[in-house]
Each structure stands twice: as C-alpha cells, then as structure tokens.
Amino acid sequence: MAQKQQARRSKTAPSSETGEQAMIEAILEGSPEAVGVAVIRLDCGCRKMAAVGPSGNPASKIIMYRDKAQSICDQCKGDHGDFQRVVKQFISWKKPEPDHATMEMISAKVLGN
Ligand SMILES: [Zn+2]
C-alpha cells in the first residue's frame, strides 16, 4: 500500500470520497448477493448508487445521497440526477472482484458503454 504518506494529510482534511466509500460498504452490507456498487457522481456533488448483482441486474434500489448533508440538493430533487449532469460513473467491485469478462459484461449492462 502506497498510502502511508497521505494518511496524515487525509486525517485533517478528509476527502469527499471517504463518505462515498462508507456508503458503498453500507450498500454491500445490505445486499449480500451484490458483486459491486454502481456509483454515479453528479456535477452538483450528489451521488447515485445502486448495488449490482452477479448478472448485471440491480440488487438494490437506487440510492441518492449528498456528503455531509441531510438530503440531496434542490436540483436533484427536481431532475432526480439527470444523466446529462453525470461527471463520472463507475462500479466499485466487491472483493474478490469477478473475472475480467464478467466485469466488462456487467459494466456494459449497468453503465451502458
Ligand atoms: Zn444534487
């Protein structure tokens, strides 16, 4: 692990991905059959997440959340996180990760590329 040098800095200034990672773990915990969590980051800072099953099927409801906030922003309340505002989408795989072909298949199905 090459994280040793960054550990001290991230303690004083936690990155926004800390909350995201905690959320991913909570979703995986609630969806034992899931192989990963699809994460969609929106330009407003909110995120959409959903557990993904072994064949690329949804394994949970879509969860929307915003770091350190009681609720998602007003824009998301209006458009429910329109895909035009997506800045990044990826799947956070549960360990052990599925084989490469399976990951490709699931990514294509879930993220559509
Ligand atoms: Zn938002």
Characterize the structure shown.
With 113 residues, the chain is α+β, with helices and mostly antiparallel strands. The chain has one domain (16-111). It is built from four helices and four strands, in the order ααβββαβα. The chain has a four-stranded antiparallel beta sheet, sandwiched between helices. A hairpin with a 3-residue loop joins strand 1 (36-42) and strand 2. It is globular. It starts with a helix and ends with a helix. Residues 6-13 have low confidence and may be disordered. Bound molecules: zinc ion (ZN).
What labels would you give this structure?
binds zinc ion; 36% helix; globular; 113 residues; four-stranded antiparallel beta sheet; single chain; 4 helices; alpha+beta
Biggest sheet overview:
4 strands, antiparallel
- Rounded average pLDDT: 88
- The number of helical elements comes to 4
Distinct small molecules: zinc ion
Strand content: 15-25%
Strand order of the largest sheet: 3-2-1-4
Whole-number total of structural domains = 1
Oligomer: single chain
Helix content: 25-40%
Low-confidence stretches: 6-13
Radius of gyration: 15 Å
Inertia-based shape: globular
What structural category do the secondary elements indicate? Answer: alpha+beta
Tell me the series of helices and strands, N- to C-terminal. Answer: HHEEEHEH
Total beta strands? 4
- End-to-end separation in angstroms reads 31 Å
